[in-house]
Design goal:
Keywords: Repeat, RNA-binding. This protein is of the alpha+beta class. It has 6 helices and 6 strands. It has helices spanning about 25, 30-40, 70-85, 110-120, 125-130, 160-175; strands spanning about 10-20, 45, 60-65, 105-110, 135-140, 150-160. The strands form 2 sheets. A 3-stranded antiparallel β-sheet has the order 1-3-2, covered by helices on one side. Strands 4-6-5 form a 3-stranded antiparallel β-sheet.
């Protein structure tokens, strides 16, 4: 599809839907979260205002404008914020903006061990994150139907000590019988 020449100067626009109840999470206190996502991604993000939103819709439209890469990055960051709001992450999203340099380490874990890492109601993964200060994500959290992968990716983000500590704890969890 070719973009019309009078399109946004910054490139493309994409609409995504987010659950109504999560609009506040994306915007953040005083607009802080959405500002950070815009800064990190370079995309312009506009959430449909309450008055313009369909009161009967379960979702709210969010407009992302920018280059393809910026839009992809913005979508990814929004996804992370939403996952965190669902208790999958650890609320460390804001920590990533504090200017600490963070690294990421990826390890592969057998599917049947993913439950050991997450724990009941996400308790274990929250504890590991709280103890180590690292951020841990399991990708994908739920395998899509028909996916027969034997392993899933565990992403650990933080500084080198945090990653080391989290790596050790995750390894202990998956070697327990």
């Amino acid at each position: 599809p070719h973009a019309a020449p009078y399109d946004y100067p910054s490139g493309r626009s994409k609409k995504i839907e987010i659950p109504n109840g999560k609009v506040g999470v994306i915007i953040g206190r005083g607009g802080e979260t959405i500002r950070n996502i815009q800064l990190q991604s370079g995309a312009k993000i506009q959430v449909t205002k309450d008055i313009d939103a369909d009161p009967y819709s379960a979702t709210r439209e969010v407009d992302l404008t920018g280059t393809v890469d910026q839009i992809i990055k913005a979508e990814q960051l929004i996804g992370e914020v939403l996952a965190e709001a669902d208790g999958v992450g650890s609320g460390s999203f804001s920590r990533r903006f504090s200017g600490q340099s963070s690294d990421a380490f990826v390890m592969m874990v057998p599917n049947r061990k993913v439950g050991c890492i997450i724990g009941k109601g996400g308790e274990t993964i929250k504890n590991v994150q709280a103890k180590t200060g690292a951020r841990i994500q399991i990708v994908p959290l739920h395998l899509p139907p028909g996916d027969i992968s034997e392993e899933r990716r565990v992403q650990i983000e933080g500084n080198s000590e945090q990653i080391e500590a989290a790596k050790q704890m995750v390894n202990e969890l998956i070697t327990e019988v």
